[in-house]
Amino acid sequence: MSALKIALIGCGAIGRVQALALRTLPEYELTALCNRHLDKAQQLAAELQLDLPLYTDPATLLRNEQCDVLTICLPPEQHHDAVLQALHAGCHVMVEKPMALSVAQCQNMVQAAVQSRKYLGVICQNRWNARSRNLKAWVDSRQGGAITAGQLRSLWWRDGNYYDLAWRGTWEREGGGCLMSHAVHQLDLLLWVLGLPQAVTAQMRNIAHDNSECEDYVSADFDYGRFNVSFICSLVHHQEEQGLILDCQQASFDGIDVHCLRGMPNGYPQLNPEAAMEFRAWLQRLPPAPYSGHAAQLEHFAQVILGRAIPCGSGSEGLAALMLIAGLYKAAVTHARVTLPLASDDPFCHHATRVSLMPHFHEKKVSLETMPSLQITL
């Protein structure tokens, strides 16, 4: 079969990441680029060394190009309308995370994909790295015995000028701070591995970003009934750590290494190298993946469209991540334990009503329409 014709909308930092990944995949032919600021599209096309049609408006692109797939790398406020527009035009759609600004918007998108009989995927590239795949296999195969506890970390660092872009750091346009735009990666991993918790508690604050209305620090607790997972995310951690650690009856596992202890007669622990060796041998037997990150998910997306793979990272899964985020914001604002899933008429499931309930830690002082660099350095 010939390569799927794919067009990319949004040529900023994450659009560049996707474009470079697409160049490595024979399943796709990149046929057009679109960006509101034409110079960004021109810069990306030159870097790719491709002579492509360039557009500043998605509607014009869809009228002029025959695309099998549209991948959307726009700011979060534009995801909902762009996805609906692409589905209506008859394209399969991949959209960057967060999927949209609210649970209700996500529900509209999922319903539109069903009605159009097209596949809607949501980028969750961390599922395709070795560490995440190992964690998923660990839980699915019941390694280590029953889960007793967990710790989820989404610790990033961003300088103050990160929020100089007009849409960043606003409840209305970005939808939130570190929880919405950064921790969505690890929250998706949590949902993929463990599913939706029964309830959440949370608190949030803004510690170091005075050009953002939104949070840059959140701590929370996920109640899974038999065990709890503690969670922390921030934009003030210079070491930049992300990951899920699962404590089980026989071992603790973070997706990279296994740690095992055993009790001594006096109740204190000692290392259990024999058990650790057995678990590490199991880990070595897991099959490697040919791709990782965005390339792996985009390759999988093509296989789903071609009927060769079961969807992983679908619109419904992107919706689940927004449901969890909505629950965390509700818990932080109301200072109450919040049961999940939220009801469809809950004000935290709808963008306008949620925005009206959120605190403004600061007011925006700098609002630039574009930033000079396309490169994500870390």
Question: Could you explain the architecture of this structure?
Answer:
The chain contains twelve helices and 16 strands. It has 378 residues and is of the alpha/beta class. It folds into two domains: 133 residues, 3-Layer(aba) Sandwich (Rossmann fold); 202 residues, Dihydrodipicolinate Reductase, domain 2. The strands form three sheets. The chain has an eight-stranded mixed beta sheet. α4 runs parallel beside α5. The chain is globular and about 75 Å long. The chain starts with a strand and ends in a 21-residue tail after the last helix.
Compile the SSE list and pairings.
Layout: E1 4-9, H1 13-22, E2 28-34, H2 38-48, E3 54-55, H3 58-64, E4 69-72, H4 79-88, E5 92-95, H5 103-116, E6 120-122, H6 130-140, E7 147-155, H7 178-181, H8 184-194, E8 199-205, E9 217-223, E10 228-234, E11 242-248, E12 252-253, E13 258-259, E14 261-263, E15 269-271, H9 273-284, H10 293-305, H11 315-334, E16 338-339, H12 351-357
Label the overall shape.
globular
Low-confidence stretches: none
Largest sheet properties: 8 strands, mixed
> From the structure provided, what is the oligomeric state, counting identical versus distinct chains?
single chain
CATH superfamily of the largest domain: Dihydrodipicolinate Reductase, domain 2
Termini separation: 37 Å
Percentage of residues in strands: 15-25%
The number of helices is 12
Number of strands: 16
Instruction: State Rg.
Output: 21 Å
* Tally of individual domains: 2
User: Which topology of the largest domain does CATH recognise?
Assistant: Dihydrodipicolinate Reductase, domain 2
- Give the spatial strand order of the biggest sheet: 13-12-11-7-10-9-8-16
The level 1 CATH classification of the largest domain is Alpha Beta
